[in-house]
Amino acid sequence: MVGAQRADEAWGERIDRAVSAVRAGELRLVRVFYADYNGLLRGRVVHAAGLADRFYEGVAVPLVELVADGHDRSPHDPPPGFGTTEEVRLVADPTSLVTLPYAPRTGAMLGDLLTLGREEWDGCPRSFLRRVLADAERDGLLVEAVFDPQFYLLEAGNVAGRWHPVERTPAASAAGMQAAAAFTLDLVDGLEQQGVEIEQTAPGAGPGQHGLTVRHGPALQAADRHLWLRETVRATAARHGLRATFAARPLADERPSASHVHLSLWDTRTGENRFYDPADPGGLSASGRRFAAGVRAHLPALMAILRPTVNAYRPGAADGIDPGVEGPEDAVTVPPPMWGREQGTTNVEVRAVDGTCNPYLALGAILAAGLDGLRGGADAGPVAPPPASPSAPPPPSLGDALDALAADEVLVRALGTPLAGAFERVRRTELAATPASPGPEEYDDHIRRY
């Protein structure tokens, strides 16, 4: 939704409903967030009494804040237009309002970054996803998606304050379920209050690791829900005296974590799943094959966005892409559909993702790559069923992934020069400040931030 549309009657009605919900819930404060180029939520806390004005006036955000890395270090050479005097306005999406179960009398919303001329800002990650979704819709396609993340539950140790797993139980074991029973129940209750439906949970292969399967939905909502999920997991863990982290490799000697992304494309005219073909032995249509081939073809560049931290490339973190994946050919695959719901559950799964990514950038970039394959782009690769058309090997480092992204014309064009350039500068700032060899401090830092 661009700035010009924010003055229409429907926009005013959405604002009225949000303000009424805040009053009915007797909320005192509302947190208004955007997701930055580090995958972190930043924003401002707005007093409920002035919320209606903030929808029309926005909240000032200096652009220098946007190009800071996770330690608030800015690049030595900020991208053009990202100086200390420029700013954008953060305008909350009233349809994203949730009541936070872990903060008394407090709500939260996600927003878009607009220019001072009230137009969509090219560097906004959420607006980028909107643009890619609008591009798909022009081809008669609606996108359903979901992020299914893994995370670790940790507790403080006795050695230099280091974190260690809260328990050591086998994967998917009854013992692991029971050890996390109280936390899991509180988590599911809190997420349901925010409209995030958890279909199942299970202890992971790592000690203290857990995985969530989330109900899919429209792509923009899926990205929003992933952010609410991450914050709620962390806050719920804290209420239980624990630390939760989505870092790719929070513990040097344990299994890494991932966040699988599932997508399907639906025909706006027929309402059918474009990835499903009942005549195919595997149920996958030619469109689904082309989409998967497109994602595979662009995987080296995608990794900079899907696994954007140095930690994600530490020894072991990308072994086989993620736990349970045998090789690069399985980074993009098609899981078997559910019995009796074949059309509704046929999807392409991207496994080369970790939970620290910005979900708007990740989902938008995956879609841009897949649509390139669907349209027969020159770099889309062969139309073959997964896993018969293997991906290129994943980049060995974040620097290599960023190089691949800068050289990928399809993804740079989709992102736009301002967004692609700013994202690269921020990630390279953190890369330059990180020692070549990991130490305990690095792992602890990623646990705290992610």
TrEMBL record:
Region: Disordered, residue numbers: 378-401, 431-450
Pfam family name, one: Gln-synt_C
Enzyme Commission number(s): 6.3.1.2
GO molecular function, one term: ATP binding
Coiled coil: none
Keyword Ligase in annotation: yes
InterPro entries with a match to the protein in the record: Gln_synt_N_sf, Gln_synth/guanido_kin_cat_dom, Gln_synth_cat_dom
Compositional bias (Pro residues): 383-397
SMART domains hit by this protein: Gln-synt_C
Organism domain of life: Bacteria
Domain GS catalytic: 125-450
Enzyme class: ligase
Record keywords: Ligase
Entry's family note: Belongs to the glutamine synthetase family.
PANTHER family, per the entry: GAMMA-GLUTAMYLPUTRESCINE SYNTHETASE, TYPE-1 GLUTAMINE SYNTHETASE 1
Protein name (Swiss-Prot/TrEMBL): Glutamine synthetase type I
Organism: uncultured Thermomicrobiales bacterium
